[in-house]
Amino acid sequence: MGAVTQSMRQLTLASATLVLLAAPGQGLETVRIGPDGDLDWKGSGTATVTPIAARYQSLLEANKLLEGNAPGQLIDFDSDQFVGAILPQRIQSGDNVATGTLARGGGINSPNVFDFSGTFKRLDLQQALEELLVPDEGGEQKAFERKDLNSLGILVIMDLGGRFGVERIRFYPRNTVQPSPATPFQSDFIRAFELFVNDGLSLSGAGVPIWGQPLVDESGNKEAVVEVILDPPQYVQHIRLRSTAAIDFEIDEFEVFGIGYLATATYISDIYDAGEPAVWGQLRWVEQILGDPRFSSVRIRTRTGTDDDPFLFTRVLNGQRDPEEIPLSVDDPSLELGLEEYRKLPKADSQGRRWNPGPVKQDLINWSPFSTPFAAEAANGPGLPITSPSPRRYMQMLIEFDSNDLDAARVIESLEFDLLKPPLADALVGEVFPREIDQIGSVPLEYSVLASQPTAGLLGFDRLEISTPLRVASIDEVQVRNSSGGEVGRRQFSSLADTIDEGGFRIVSVDDRSFEVQFPRVAEHGSVVRIRYKSDVLTYSTNFTATAKLSSEPGATQPVDSGDTGDLGPGDDPDLSGTTVLSPALLHGRLLDQVVLDPPVFTPNGDGINDEMQLAYSLLSLGSPRLVTIVIHDLTGRQVRELAAVDEANGRYEGKFWDGRDDSGNLVSPGIYVLRISIEGDSRSDGMVQVVGVAY
Q1: Per-domain boundaries in the chain
Q2: 91-261 has which CATH code?
Q3: What is the pTM of this model?
Q4: What is the pLDDT of residues 581-623, one digit of tens each?
Q5: What angle do CA 60, 65, 70 make, to 5 degrees?
Q6: How far is CA 528 from CA 217, 421, 430, 454, 464, in A?
Q7: pLDDT digits (tens, 9 = 90+) for 300-311
């Protein structure tokens, strides 16, 4: 079964010593958010992580940071029906959503109101405009007035700060809906107007609403209280009112009555501080669907960082054209510019130069971008690995809710994630070789993982799981080397069934998409684990990802990053090192390969011997699942049986059979038949014909 060296036994003893030195309480921990959890959704509670208050950029002012977990305040944290959960707000019929516009980060303005006395400057009417959205008592003393002026073409534009289902819009002058005898201007209503709405999705490249046709085009209004009914209700974020008559008017209140669940809502978690670099492991959540599941969705993303602030603050020199954006402190240029100092800008430096606040940006040096969303089908399941870089000290989550129906929404009842501290290693880097192949089928590959472990007290690892496009053809050898390149231990395997432990080396598992091997614990900085195996490559570019594990700590895992692990032989260019294998032969080659009929001649007579023919084949170079059809014809070309018509992705397929019967369920006559398999690819098609013999 192979040999185990003496140096490997020494490594095993060293690993045992590491276990004895490990501090109590080290290992995998879980944080639960939600009802009966360690933390609630706003960060209150006690957990193994410390919450740091979340901040986000204002919807209208990117350089303004707001504190909280719900941009636009669109998340319901206090639902009576779903206690302790989060979900998009549901607007009850008759609720005026315009009143919360400013608090959500929305706004209202009149961009073409000018002083026509000769200066043609914009008038400061912001207070009067904002008064349109405030229904409190005393509001009747103020209104948005256009009197003794040419009112033709005056605009009022509102951004609700979110996408709301809207059933009614109403606006009116004073002393109408709200009695106000002191301001009897009920006759000063707008006489002609156009009213436009925008759903928040129809925007120009610059993010400006595209208005389209007016919702209402009224040229002879006679009603002081203008009420527009949207039947059926529709999603609205932006509203535009335009006066089309040169007649004085005023508006006391502008009301927007919503209904149903919000179309979009975002939750951003506090920043979770592990206190030290940690591996952020599995993430699981409990989700409930309200209404038709086709019309709602939720996306969960993560990001990780090495400091406690995912924003980058910059300063620019006053009066300079196209000034450089400098992210360093004015007082101490060796330090980053922090939020507190940024808020005190403008200020002068020691040379008397004046520095103004520059753009606030995402810090993509110390923080990763938010990850791709976790697979939706993972809800209410065992969870998925957090793919954001690890080990890192800080982690943050983003949850985005979407709905295309006013009665549809998703609820996140609870969420939990694992973290491992200390990590298995400071860093794990992996590469596969060779990185380019010119053949189809099973090819020999070598996977190498380099362990960076200079920090004392790390847990180490003794398993590697490697992803594969198909079930591996073989696992040939696992080898451990020390930082000097000397061999510590080696094991050769005779077959995939060779799972007996020998000196700490063994095959742990093999399935259709991965395999896992075990070896003596690796705890020395600079150690390298090398695995030789044979695997199919099904696409032009195949990424072989890997995860390290520790068998004594169930659930303890750490992803392996792509990079250079050292010289793997002739042709190994360190600048090209990585975990991706290219196969140019597949770029313009076949989509269908390795078609096998077993047996090619069969006898469906019910005696239990060769009663069925099994079909196996491989699909290659598909960007997404595509339609595969498998049909049996007789020699005249007439269809006898359709075995399959199904969407399939890259992979090896072996579960299709023909029992010798036609589409009506009758046994066919003995003779020669033709099996035709065809696939419609992303940019081309492929097919293959095989002869099948039926005998009795």
Answers
A1: 29-86+266-310+363-421, 91-261, 427-586, 592-694
A2: 2.60.120.260
A3: 0.78
A4: 887 766 556 788 889 999 999 999 999 999 999 999 988 877 6
A5: 80
A6: 74, 22, 9, 14, 12
A7: 999 999 999 999
